[in-house]
Each structure stands twice: as C-alpha cells, then as structure tokens.
Design brief:
This protein has helices at 13-16, 111-125, and strands at 3-10, 25-28, 39-45, 57-61, 66-69, 80-82, 88-93, 144-151, 164-171, 185-191. The strands form 2 sheets. Strands 1, 2, 3, 4, 5, 6 and 7 form a 7-stranded mixed beta sheet that branches. The protein has a 3-stranded antiparallel beta sheet with strand order 9-8-10, with no helix packed on it. By secondary structure, it is mainly beta. The chain is 9% helix and 30% strand. The protein starts with a strand and ends in an 11-residue tail after the last strand. Strand 4 (57-61) and strand 5 (66-69) form a beta hairpin. It is built from 2 helices and 10 strands.
Length: 202
C-alpha cells in the first residue's frame, strides 16, 4: 500500500463552510468495502460548504467515492487541509493508476488488430502493467448515421413540429450509448443523407 505522509490541520465545521468545490481536502479512506483505518484520501466537496445543512458534509474522493463527514464530531475522522505548519501528520493513500472505461472503435478489428493494440499499450506503459480485466466486443455495420436529439412534445400531439438538434454524424450509432441527452429531449438515430444544395449560382 502506497501512502505519503503530509503535514495537515483538522478543519472545524465553520472553516469547512467557507470552502468551495475546487478546494482540495483530505477525508478518511475507510469505506464499506475496504477498511483503511487512520488513512486519508484527496477529495473535493460535492457542493460549496455554505450550502450544506445540518452539519454533515459530503465530499467526493479522487477515487469517485462519496464520503459523509461530521467535522466537529471528535469520534469522526474529520476533514483535513494540507498545512506545512500543521500540528499533525496524516497518511495519504496514493493512486496506483486509472481504469479506463471507454468505447474504442478499431476499424477492421479482428484478433490480430486487438493483439497489436494491447501490445502497443504494454510497450508504452511496461510489460504486465496494462491488464485487460473486462472486454466486451461488438461488431458494427458500416453505416453512417445522424444522431439527433429531439425535444419531447408537450400538450396536444402534432400541434408543433418537434425541435431537433444534431449531436453527431457517426459510423453506426455506437456513440449514442454514451452521449448524455438533455432533459426533455430524446435521442433520434437516422441513416445519414448528405445535404444537397440546389441553389443556382450566377
């Protein structure tokens, strides 16, 4: 387990309420799945300190876990801020790396292409460093599509033609699974038809 010792000071609830979501904090690394007593992780408040009610503060760690803290409770691990002149030294858990969760399109992606892709990743980061934990493969047809988001009509049907915004032109709608559509809008996927301008020129 990689940790770093840093000088820090514990914040009171009043001090925490003056902080914003950009301020780097340290909160307990203890979770339901992993018990790490007396160890801390970097984190950020989920909303500005002044917006919290009731004294319980919620922070999101760099490992994407949400932690609730009671700064003024002596039995709680509390919230710390790095301070060179701080009265205490805390152990901070270091990051081992990142897990990429992405959609990767490999043209003509046969077994040889995937093997070359993994070999290149291992060459870049070191042998046995890149580990393939989960792999989902899906063939996609060679079709170009338009991905729109269309406003969900309200009131009487057919009263107005729905508003539409183009989000992407893509090869097959694989990206539609990952686009976050706006509230009140729905995704529409159609075969791409190039716009033809018949305006006569002089």
């Amino acid at each position: 387990m990689n940790t770093e010792k840093i000088a820090a000071r514990r914040l009171s609830l009043e001090e925490v309420t003056k902080l914003g979501v950009q301020d780097r904090l340290f909160v307990s690394a203890d979770t339901a799945e992993l018990k790490l007593p007396d160890c801390y992780v970097p984190a950020f408040l989920t909303k500005s300190g002044g917006e919290f009610e009731g004294g319980s503060i919620t922070a999101r760690t760099i490992f994407q876990e949400e932690v609730s803290c009671l700064p003024d409770d002596e039995n709680d691990a509390g919230i710390y801020l790095a301070d060179e002149n701080g009265p205490v030294t805390i152990e901070v858990l270091q990051s081992a790396g990142v897990v990429l969760d992405l959609a990767l399109f490999v043209p003509g992606g046969d077994k040889g292409a995937l093997s070359a892709l993994y070999a290149a990743a291992r060459q870049a980061f070191g042998a046995d460093i890149v580990q393939i934990w989960r792999q989902g493969l899906k063939e996609v047809p060679d079709v170009k599509v338009d991905i729109f988001e269309e406003q969900i009509p309200r009131g009487r049907k057919g009263s107005d033609s729905p508003k539409r915004d183009r989000r992407a032109i893509d090869t097959y709608p694989t990206r539609a699974d990952f686009i976050e559509f706006s509230a009140g809008w729905k995704p529409v996927v159609e075969i791409h038809r190039p716009l033809v301008d018949d305006t006569p020129t002089i």
